[in-house]
Write a structure and sequence with these properties.
The structure holds two protein chains of two kinds. Chain A contains eight helices and eight strands, in the order αβαβαβααβββαβαβα. Chain A is an alpha/beta fold. In chain A, helix 1 packs across helix 2 and helix 1 runs parallel beside helix 7. Chain A is globular and about 45 Å long. The mean pLDDT of chain A is 95. Chain B is α/β, with parallel strands linked by helices. Chain B has one domain: 3-Layer(aba) Sandwich (Rossmann fold). Chain B contains eight helices and six strands. In chain B, helix 1 packs across helix 2 and helix 3 packs parallel to helix 5. About 3% of the residues of chain B have low confidence. Classes of the chains: A alpha/beta, B alpha/beta.
């Protein structure tokens, strides 16, 4: 499954008022390429902080569903976050981890123990009440809505193809701080 | 036999009450924590405070990330930890201070100085302030909690500066005038 196919499934099933948090790297790029209208915050650097940032946002905004689209490199950096999130148990947070077993943006280097890590087992062992794993598009098409429609916390692991994802030639016209302000303005307007 | 309830005033309970009251007055609604023995009364008081959502973390930098996410969502938040957690979180604090520009409070116990009794804490006292200086993160050392007004002042400073502010609490500021080390 190509990563943009997985991202497109979220665009298809998300509600208009869902908020997306993207980890850094190729997952962010896939979500950006889909061009979905949902309010999105790119967690950017610091690497490894996507889950914590999404948890904080979910706690601050219990009126909104927060969906974290995360890469396996970012998640593997800080697996303890799965324990913290399970302990906090926010009912409005969902996590989808795109697994390609590589640090794609860094040049495609393999993750430690690449191909042998089960994020659903790690999450289940950490106390997550629901996990799912999709190895292809048909499984993902069934499990993405299952993740979103369930009443509480859940983690979905999606296996995606390894595809080059080099650094963009242009970092874009706005700074992270300016993106933050734009995100907060849109969030305030919707309140 | 009738048991009498004996009310024991634990060291630090009064200071914890002042600090939490100041957090509530400053509209801090989310607190993350990782324990230190000097922080025990404060964390227990935070956990009992109905106006604050308390999240226990496995690493202090997760607490920083949660505070940043809360700030992104429009809520005030605090991380309560040892200064070892500040050192661990150096990259994350710098990222949220200077890249994202998200304000929140870090309330850290200042281990490794004249009040300490443990050799393994001492290096933290040596490097904490130089590291914060290097990160260009504002911080203040709190020797005496007083009325805890420093808490509200630091929250306002964070908001105005759009970056985290660290309060380094001495043992006496947390536990009061106690001599038994732990």
């Amino acid at each position: 499954m190509r990563r943009t196919v997985a991202a497109r499934l979220f665009a298809k099933h998300l509600a208009p008022d869902d908020i997306v948090v993207c980890g850094l790297g190729s997952t962010r790029r896939a979500w950006s390429e889909v061009g979905a209208p949902q309010l999105t915050y790119n967690a950017s650097d610091p690497m490894g902080m996507g889950p914590a940032l999404a948890l904080g946002l979910a706690l601050a905004r219990p009126d909104r569903r927060i969906v974290l689209l995360e890469g396996d490199g970012d998640l593997a950096m800080n697996l303890g976050a799965l324990v913290t999130i399970a302990g906090a148990a926010p009912t409005n947070l969902r996590l989808a981890v795109f697994i390609n077993d590589r640090y794609e943006t860094g040049g495609g280097q393999p993750l430690p123990n690449a191909g042998n890590i089960s994020y659903v087992m790690v999450a289940a062992g950490a106390g997550w009440p629901w996990t799912g794993e999709a190895h292809d598009e048909s499984q993902a098409d069934r499990l993405v809505p299952a993740l979103l429609e369930r009443p509480g916390l859940g983690l979905l692991a999606l296996h995606v193809d390894a595809e080059p994802s080099p650094y963009p030639a242009d970092p874009g016209p706005t700074s992270q701080a300016e993106d933050k302000v734009a995100f907060q303005r849109r969030l305030d307007r919707a309140s | 036999m009738v048991r009498r309830a004996v009310r024991v005033s634990e060291p630090g309970a009064e200071n914890a009450e002042r600090i939490v009251s100041a957090l509530v007055a400053a509209k801090v609604e989310i607190a993350t924590s990782l324990p230190d023995s000097w922080l025990a009364p404060l964390i227990a008081r935070i956990a009992a405070e109905p106006k604050i959502r308390h999240v226990r973390v496995t690493r202090e930098d997760d607490g920083v990330g949660i505070c940043a996410g809360a700030s992104l969502g429009g809520k005030r938040a605090v991380l309560v930890c040892q200064n070892a957690g500040v050192l661990l979180s150096a990259n994350v604090l710098a990222g949220y201070a200077h890249h994202h520009q998200l304000p929140f409070l870090v309330l850290a116990v200042y281990r490794g100085s004249y009040e300490d009794r443990f050799h393994y804490q001492m290096y933290k006292g040596l490097v904490t302030e130089p590291v914060l200086d290097g990160l260009r993160i504002p911080y203040h050392v709190v020797d005496d909690v007083g009325d805890a007004s420093i808490v509200g002042d630091a929250v306002r400073e964070a908001d105005l500066g759009r970056k985290p502010v660290v309060l380094l609490f001495r043992r006496a500021a947390l536990l009061g005038d106690v001599t038994k080390a732990s």
